[in-house]
Amino acid sequence: MIKKLLSLSATAVLLLSLAVSLSVNCGCKAVDYIRETNARKSGQLQEITLSDADFELSSMKKHPSENGLVATDGDPFIIYSCNMLLSGVSFRMEYSMYPADMLLYWTTATQTEYSNSNMAVITPAKDEEGLFYVSVPLTEVTGIRIDPTTVAGNHLVFSDFVINPEKTLSEYLTFDSYSLMAVGIYTLVLFAVIRFVQDFFTKKQK
Amino acid sequence: MPNFIIPLVAVIMFAFALYVLADVNPSAAPLVSIVTLVNTVTVCAMFNALKAGTALAYVLAAGTFCLAAFQNKDSLKDKINGFFAPGVVLFVAASMAMLVCLAHTQPLIHQWDEYSFWAKSRQLVKNHNQLYTYYKSSMLGQSIPPALPLTSYFFQRFCPDFVEWGVYFAYDVLFFACFSAFCGNFDRSKAGRAAAMFVSALLIPYFFGITAHTTSLSSIYISAYSDLPLAVLTAGTVAVYMFSGRSDEKRIIPVLSCLVYLTFTKDMGFALGCIALFIIFFDIVVSKKEYIFFKIKGFIGKIATGFAMLAVTAATFLGWSRHLAAVLSLDRTDYGGEAGMGMVEILLNGVKEFLIGPKSEKFVIMQDKFFSAFFNTKVSMIGSGLIVVAVIAVIFLAAVIFGDKNSRVRSAVMGVTSLIGFGGYYIFHLLLYVYVLSGEAYSLASYERYIGTYYTAWLFMALMCLAFATVNSKLANGVLTGFMCCIVLVFGYYIRPENIFTGVNRQSFATRRSVMKKVEKIAPAVSNDDVIFILCGGDEGERWFTYTFEMDKNFIIPNADFTSAGENDAETTALRRQEMKDRFEKYGVTHVLIDHSSLDFIHYFADMFNDSDVYAPMSDVGPTMVSYYKVNYAEDGMSFDFVEGGVVDYD
Q1: Could you tell me which CATH number the domain at B510-647 has?
Q2: What percent of chain B has pLDDT over 90?
Q3: Residues of B with CB below 8 A from A151's CB?
């Protein structure tokens, strides 16, 4: 086996590297999927729909005349206290100004402050205006906090606010441009490492 | 997208011709190809023949390719095979991948100085088909040399209109061409080493560009700034020389082309060009190989080479100065700034003050700041300048230890010359901070960005020396592979998907997009002849510059507050209104655009505005609104009539 690996041609090594990094990437995604489906089946992971009233507001207040909330300064957020397993959040949001950075923080039993180590960036859906989502690795959380905008005075109207929305297998397995780039880079990294190992040991055989 | 494939193919064709006809190392050929083509465009553009120059460059690429193919029609297959060295394959693959990614995510121009010059100039050149020195515009920095704008122009030649991400694409192709040049020592049998080098090169900009965990989008690979191009090109120039494989003038001529391009990149490019040629010169001197420069043998030939490089670099610098003097009547030697000194004056005064004294108070403060910044300011993912220099030193050391006899000496000498280069670059920046920058100097504004340029170039040079050593040493190969693994690990630790260019989405660039929406709102009422005063209350300038970029067909008058003050409020009001009228008449302002009013502005000017009945009064113009007014001049003052505006729908 090792001898075979050492005598592979460059092209074969390149293909092997590509295959390995592709399958590792897919494998990780599949493991995530299986863990989540199991958690859902056992009832640990539940889909919950929330409304504005469920949140504790900070630097935000109800809009005086219309639906929704208004940011009173540049660092508003909403908090939902809970005790549950978290896999992600999705919601619709209308805004009066572009919201700029949108973040999700969470606290755990050990990490009781909201900090950068427990944080994920909320991104807009590609094909649907106004829909936002974020996925996180399965975590037992004690609270989640959403920073929906960094623009003071922004008028936000949330709807369809879902915690732990269900995702299909294909949604798990899609390649975004980042994972494609990662596959490309890891292929080259593996290729370089295997070629180095080949190179290193062939001399000793001489 | 196909519009961008044509220039890429032209670059590859000319690179092939260079490889076949001029015996340029195939991996370095794409870089030499780009810089030579763009130099051709630049020189023509300086004589107001931009379109003709670009056509000439394309003809040159196609013509030489046909010639090369015709001359070698029997062995064409072998030649093509020889041309596609690992570096070239990676260059083509990376360029195509980047093209697809940029066409898919369509990043927008989004940084402050991009609006004022770095992207503005590309937009102007594309729209006018003329170099920006030839016409009036709202752009700042008309005296900055044009290599990068014209690279962008070359790549956009076949686009009907200006494409913003096309600027980024042009830069990225240039980067990948340099990365390919770094792989110049690796043929097909050493493709693994080439992969390690290329991946390291690809990630090193991030290594210096992101120094903390952050949620924001990094502009690396989607930026029109010149700091990274300067760094990569400086190293690329050295790489073209290092891996040439020849030992006569054919080794140096491609380097000359790179030096011309580097000097045409920015004023600092001249300094970096001098450092590059200094490093190359000493490498030629200590290199043991027999060296002939146009039949001049031995040491004198080496000296002649040094002079040739210096002459070409200086001539390029002076050529652009002459151009500025002739077209703009501008004296480029005057650097302006606090002391209003010329560049030579800065250098002479600075060196005198630095070495002999007496030092001014500012000099002493800045000197201490620069000294401690080297140890304390985080300039890379792993730490301060000291740590970076330690890493670079380790790589040079590995190159010295594992190299063969000749490359040992060369690596050691290059380590020393590049260190001297660093010293010079560092002190030169100290002088710039002392003499040119004023208020922001004390906070060392942009220090990481400016100094990072040299660290980046330096690290690449160290890796090139290591690349030399890997030829005969498996351990050196191990160091290179290990270095790549470290860079990948550090990258993985620091970077989130949303940090890098692949993370661009419809939420990115909020400021830019909100300005775009506002301009869209008033667009029906704006004609190209309008001369506009724009008010962005509460803005430090970014929004204002965004407007100048967005409304590129109009002349936007320079931004300044009205500051006259009288004894009492009524007097101040009268004075400020007069001040406004004087300035408006001076520039011939026809329209006023209000992005965001300010309390001060409302206080002194509000009743001059005749708002429409349906539209909220001027005092309400805020983040979600925009309004556009026509200026009426009268004997006793001015008034403004509402033309277009209202609430902007951002959804």
Answers
A1: 3.40.50
A2: 62
A3: 510, 623
